[in-house]
Amino acid sequence: MTETTYLHSAENVLDPLGDAEKEEEAGTKRNYAKVGSGRPSSLIYTYGPGSIMDLPQFTVMPAGLDDWERIWARRDGAPPTIHAPRLREVVRMMLRSPNAQLRPFPWQPKKLSMSRDGDDLGVPARIFPQWMRCTGCDMLAQLPKFRYRNTHPFRPDEAVFEHEKCYGRKGQSGRKGVRRPAVPARYLLACPDGHLDEFPYDLWVHEGGSCSEAEFPALKMVDRTAGKGASATIVCASCAARRPMNEAQGEVGRAKLPKCRGRHPHLDAFEPNGCGNQTRLMLVGASNLWFAASESIIVMPESTSEQAVDLADKIRIALGENLEQFGSQPNVIRALLKDKVDEVEGLSDPELAALLEKAAEPVPTVEEHQDQLERWDPVDLLVPEWNYLQRDPLGSAHPDEKSGLVLSKRQRGEDLPAEISRVLAVEKLRKVNALVGFTRIDAMDRVGDLPRRLVPLSRAPRPLWTVATEDLGEGVYLQLDESQVEAWEDRVEASPIWHALREAHRRNFNNRFSETGASVDPDTRLKPPRYWLVHTLAHVLIREMAMKCGYSAASLSERLYAWPASDTRPAAAGLLIATTASDSDGTLGGLVQLSEARRLEGIVRDALYRATRCSSDPVCAKRTPQDPEDFLHGAACHCCAMASETSCERANRFLDRRFLVDLPGSRLGFFGHVV
């Protein structure tokens, strides 16, 4: 697989802080660089590089990671990294980069609310789209026609683009030149390969030609029915040409749009050979404009061999080309690694030699990374967590300082259902999330050719880092009895309900997956019955725990371990209900207390009992998809089993209360009849 080099002008540098400093040095009225803020979780899942972030007065697009380097360069020393070797290896595979590291967002907490600490850190962003419309006179023009104002150091929400001499719309009385705010023109062009471009309004209104009256025609966007899709009309005030935007909608309208130019605005670059895909009309606030491609892990303690691999990797990166030249001279190596890799100081020469030999092993090539990516299963990230959770902690609140994990085994209460075989209190945990790219139009799990569809975060073919977040929290881990799960699964797979759900999934796949999913067998994307069981149990427990733990249901999330046995991994059937926060204090212990025997008994009992009833019954209890229906749930709705987007890892798919408890007309409940 060949590496891509993007067409990019090195002169067009994005440096918001540098630009603000130049204005200050020139003595002009300073426009501050800061235009808004966001939580790390929103910046990685909703508003990452390449997305469009809606600010009070305009929209911005966080830039690619290349432009973040100027932010890090303002601080002395190397940028900080997040230690999560298992996730880091997956990121390296997906980025095809053997040296990639995980870095946090460039941010520093403020000691006081009005402090200027950390003002030299932040995420660089571009104004996008750069076509704007005056709210007073409907003038449609690009940014240079408007004046930017952002002069209050602590009110970035007041940053605005203004039409300085707006005379209002035709026919308005008392027309005087006044300042009017401008808003983004909301139409864009997107293609399935992740490219995004401005809508060519001048070409559109003139049907691909040029204005007959002016070289730079005066355009207007007339819109009197906001909120009804492509309802605006583009008007050329120079030649009186008019064309409505609704002509660009649908399959017929798509043929009237230009071919894709292969533009990546977050990278300020174009594909070297163009694109050629047919573009689609896209609105600025469309939900399918940006889908994050991210991976996450719960950090588990490392084995001795894993620690050795991690240390060898640090040595390899720190030494670079010196590894081959001085690898046989331990004294020289120690001198080179001083103040770079502290762990080397306590090693003997034989131990150091073994690490140097491991560090000298050849790194995977781009082709090998590509082959790994095609064979990789996301479940591989969960298997080490499941394996570690099978061990009993050495004692109550047993800590592991490096991973931050603190576990305690809980005794099973006598009234806890026998189907739940094990309970652990996860008193502290550390979750790391990394962004590896994004897709447009189709979500990551809706395509069959992810390596081609995944839009990069950097112009570099082998980026040296990607952005990650680190969350601290607590949780409750429940494990189901494998022998009972296996017997129950055999019974479900032979049932008419499972057959109907399987056929609905096939229809859903054919109806909703992108054209690149045609070569994929739908059954390979269907979760097994045990996943539906564990998933539904997690949802009803989240609902019940939220009423007793002090956290809202939206603050609780699930991590599901549910897969049948294979040649490479043991069978799993368990779940972790957790809550995490990105601040240093983590959480307050209200959730982990629910793992105590008496409390957990009541929560499980009440959750299962509530699962037997729904305010939408009997419609909900008997819901089974029939042709042509293609929804991916059975007896589940927002009244009984569905959860918020922040809680569910599958967007409320693969849920059915009939697999959890017996409902009228069904005897497939894993926990049987609950009273």
From TrEMBL:
UniProt domain MrfA-like Zn-binding: residue ranges: 537-640
Bilayer-crossing regions: none
Span list, region Disordered: 14-33
Identify one Pfam family in the record.
MZB
Can you say what this protein is called? MrfA-like Zn-binding domain-containing protein
